[in-house]
Write a structure and sequence with these properties.
heterodimer; A: mainly alpha; about 5% strand; B: about 100 residues; mainly alpha; 4 helices
Chain lengths: ~625, ~100
């Protein structure tokens, strides 16, 4: 995707407005309450839009569209059954309880309802998750930025056989490079002229005697040109090396040492994004996050819906689009089905979607995820907190049309994209009129920034309120907390940038942290649900339920990984593990609660659904 | 090295022990779920949305009516919630 001057102008203007608005709003921030909760003056419509756009990261725009390319509209479940019903439930049951308690964080509410142990465990897990997730989000979005803007180093591989190309590509590492497969019959000098690769690697088997084009390339000294040869690896598989004077390099080493350095380093993207987002979050706190999210939501919707309508128009209308997808045969037979059989080969059987996603993960996300729920605490009234969630639910109904369907359009447009995650980029590149790429890229940036700023602000809030204030300065003034909150914001931006660099080296960290969150969500949700809906739930019960749920999910994961035959039949059984840890946590919390003394009535006031109505204060009753 | 191999083997046997206990009931439940035909699964999804809609309809007025922040006019949030749920019923009926 190559942007022209107008595109860059649009993006620059968008970034300028976002940062300017954040700094402007920061002038009104005087206390910690202003910084963490927007002074509890935020309107429902802004919170609702912020909820929706924070849920959609840049990874989602690219990744969900990529999955829709492979599996179809089943991906819409993540926004429909995975959001809409639970947002409606949360609006009337849970959000009012949090809002009335005047808390800043979910662990703070757990501390009020149960005890310090439950609050601390929850705060430590969420605090660690948010801090690490910040770095991972910065890294992952920087990777996407580089992919979309063609900023990754380019490796051109000249070989006769596709298998050789794929083998070399795998050895170099497909993620951080762009690869071009070129065959000896292609116009290689013209391709090198057009793509300007950082290195050209030629299979030695086709370079004897050296072809004419190779001589020409050597003469221009435009792109370094190296020869690679196939050798037998220790495992017996075929490997590829680049012979050099006095030895040989692996193909991965050769790209690093002999290739021309990339003009744009991935780290520049991480730092750029970190600084831009950090600036407006530092000055404006949650207010800036929510109002910039409003702009971001509008930009994202415009960009994605433009892609939707223009993409369908280019395919000849809705009927032609559906026909084109259905015409692809067996691979697309389920592309317009939301509900897939329990034994489907895709990772999205209806049972996992309904129980794991719809019942547990979605509920845990919309009811218990600090970086989401925090903005509803900032509503001007209880009614507006409810309205914000319902407005968000209505917007969520539209999201799959904006994000999932374009992935299917990309399939109809080009069914032969090798890497599904690049399907959206290919579609945009091919169909967008010149000058309008900026619209889509703005949508991408909007999605990126809205998720990272929420994570940053929530991490600062949680570490200030639940860790710093609770354990070090319980008597801190509101102004002191504002200063500490801003210090944490700076700390987390620096940490995020450094951790982003770290994530680049250890990709499995991303999977590990997502897994840990999945394991924690079920038990966390169980104690929130019981805490709000059942007055008999006790602190001891919640602690036992939380720990047993964590043990259950960890145990299931361990058994699944170590048993000679895996316990679950699907490759990523997190939806099922989340479900069972939720059920166990629910059961243990209930049983232990019944075995321990009731909580005092005064402690439950304002924290349990309809408790105040059923148990009015004696004075009020008389009145 | 030898002790690591023993540890690995014992980890696997412990995991197998628990997996064998859990696999029976797990497999039984899996069979139940697999036996559910897609139309019935769709019915489960739709029933979920319908039950929620019913619950929304039964919520007391005090919990669903809020005053507009600027005009003070009363707004009934029940209709917005129902609109969201009805859209889901339509979508899950079609796809």
């Amino acid at each position: 995707m190559s942007l022209n001057g107008i595109d860059f102008g649009v993006i620059f203007l968008y970034l300028l407005i976002t940062v300017g608005l954040g700094i402007y709003l920061g002038r009104r921030i005087k206390t910690g309450r202003d910084y963490f909760l927007g002074g509890r003056k935020l309107p429902w419509w802004a919170i609702g839009m912020s909820l929706v756009v924070s849920d959609i990261g840049a990874i989602d725009i690219v990744g969900i569209a990529g999955s829709a390319y492979l599996y179809g509209i089943v991906m819409g479940n993540f926004d429909w059954i995975g959001c809409v019903p639970v947002m409606v439930i949360a609006a009337f049951l849970f959000i009012p309880m949090f809002w009335k308690a005047e808390v800043s964080t979910v662990p703070e509410w757990l501390g009020l309802r149960y005890n310090l142990s439950v609050r601390t465990i929850s705060a430590v897990i969420w605090g660690a998750f948010l801090a690490c997730n910040l770095g991972i989000m910065l890294y992952a979005t920087a990777v996407m930025l580089n992919v979309l803007l063609d900023l990754n180093p380019k490796v051109m591989i000249v070989a006769e056989e596709p298998a050789v190309f794929e083998g070399v590509q795998a050895r170099v590492g497909a993620k951080d490079f762009q690869f071009y497969f070129v065959q000896p019959g292609d116009d290689i000098p013209a391709l090198v002229e057009r793509e300007d690769p950082n290195i050209v690697m030629v299979d030695a088997a086709i370079a004897q005697p050296p072809p004419v084009w190779a001589e020409a390339l050597y003469a221009t000294e435009r792109s370094p040109l190296v020869l690679f040869s196939g050798v037998s690896a220790d495992s017996g598989a075929r490997d590829w090396v680049v012979p050099i004077e006095g030895g040989e390099l692996s193909v991965a080493e050769a790209v690093g040492e002999l290739g021309r350095p990339a003009r744009w380093n991935l780290m520049y993207s991480i730092i750029l994004m970190g600084v831009v987002i950090g600036l407006y979050t530092f000055f404006g706190g949650l207010t800036a996050v929510v109002y910039t999210d409003v702009i971001q939501c509008a930009v994202m919707m415009v960009g994605c819906f433009f892609t939707l309508f223009y993409g369908i128009h280019r395919l000849g209308g809705l009927g032609a689009f559906m026909e084109a997808v259905r015409g692809l045969g067996e691979r697309t037979q389920d592309h317009f089905h939301l509900i897939l059989p329990a034994d489907t080969v895709t990772p999205y059987p209806w049972s996992g979607i309904f129980l794991g996603l719809g019942m547990v993960l979605a509920s845990a996300y919309w009811i218990g995820n600090q970086s989401i729920v925090q903005r509803s605490f900032a509503a001007r009234s209880e009614g507006e907190a409810k309205a914000a969630y319902l407005w968000g639910a209505l917007l969520k109904v539209l999201i799959p049309f904006a994000v999932v369907v374009p992935g299917i359009i990309a399939l109809a447009h080009n069914p032969n994209v090798g890497d599904a995650d690049k399907a959206m980029a290919v579609l945009i590149r091919d169909i967008m009129p010149p000058g309008l790429l900026g619209i889509f890229f703005g949508a991408f940036l909007a999605a990126l920034m809205s998720s990272v700023d929420s994570c940053l602000n929530s991490a600062a809030t949680l570490w200030t309120k639940d860790i710093y204030q609770r354990f070090f300065r319980p008597q801190a003034t509101d102004h002191h907390l504002l200063v500490v909150g801003r210090v944490w914001t700076v700390v987390f931006i620096i940490w995020g940038i450094l951790f982003g660099r770290f994530s680049a080296r250890f990709e499995s960290i991303y999977t590990l942290i997502q897994t840990l969150l999945t394991l924690f969500q079920g038990p966390s949700l169980a104690i929130i649900i019981l805490g709000v809906l059942w007055s008999r739930t006790t602190g001891h019960g919640a602690l036992a339920g939380l720990l047993s749920g964590l043990g259950c999910s960890g145990g299931l994961l361990w058994i699944n990984a170590h048993a000679s035959v895996p316990l679950f039949r699907i490759a990523d059984p997190y939806l099922y593990i989340a479900w069972w840890s939720f059920v166990i946590s629910l059961a243990v919390t209930a049983v232990v609660s019944l075995m321990t003394p009731r909580e005092p009535e005064e402690k439950l006031r304002g924290l349990v659904y309809r408790w105040d109505r059923r148990n009015p204060r004696p004075g009020k009753e008389a009145a | 090295m030898k002790s690591m191999v023993i540890l690995a083997v014992s980890a696997q046997s412990v995991a197998d022990f628990f997996a064998n206990i859990l696999r029976g009931p797990g497999e039984m439940m899996r069979q139940w779920v697999v036996a559910v035909p897609p139309p019935m699964a769709r019915g489960i999804f739709l029933a979920y949305f319908l039950l929620l809609a019913l619950w929304i309809l039964r919520l007391p007025r005090a919990e669903v009516v809020v005053a507009h922040p600027k005009t003070g006019k009363l707004v009934n949030l029940r209709y917005i919630a129902l609109l969201a749920l009805v859209s889901q019923i339509v979508i899950y009926s079609i796809f």
